[in-house]
Amino acid sequence: MARNPGRPLSPHLTIWKWSPQMAVSIIHRATGVACAIGGGILFVWWLTALAGGEASYTRFVGFVTSEQTGKLTWLPAIILIGLTWSFLQHLCSGVRHLLLDTGAGYELGRNRLGAILTFVVSVLVTLAIWVPMFVRTN
What we know:
Distance between the termini: 71 Å
Order of helices and strands: HHHH
Oligomer: single chain
Mean pLDDT: 91
Low-confidence stretches: none
């Protein structure tokens, strides 16, 4: 199909100036996929290990924790921290959209602030969850 040169091209991402609202919209979709696929795989793996009996569950625990310390190893920790942030970012973005659905927060300044707050709150709550797990108490 030939393009009609008399008609304008549709705007593309390179034309628009990036804003927090655009970033939240894209990240919301990405975090939804990450939670569904990553969280789903991890959950099914855990359930399968649990249903497989003691030996199967011991292998699962051995993979995610260190034999010497009994604490999370670095790769599972990164995956779990990432999934935690992904869930919380998706949650905060969903709450923002719920508030927008009520008609609140459509003013440009308030909308921008709400978008930025979804990032700030999700990072702070992720830190509040994970930092105590890595801080040593003697």
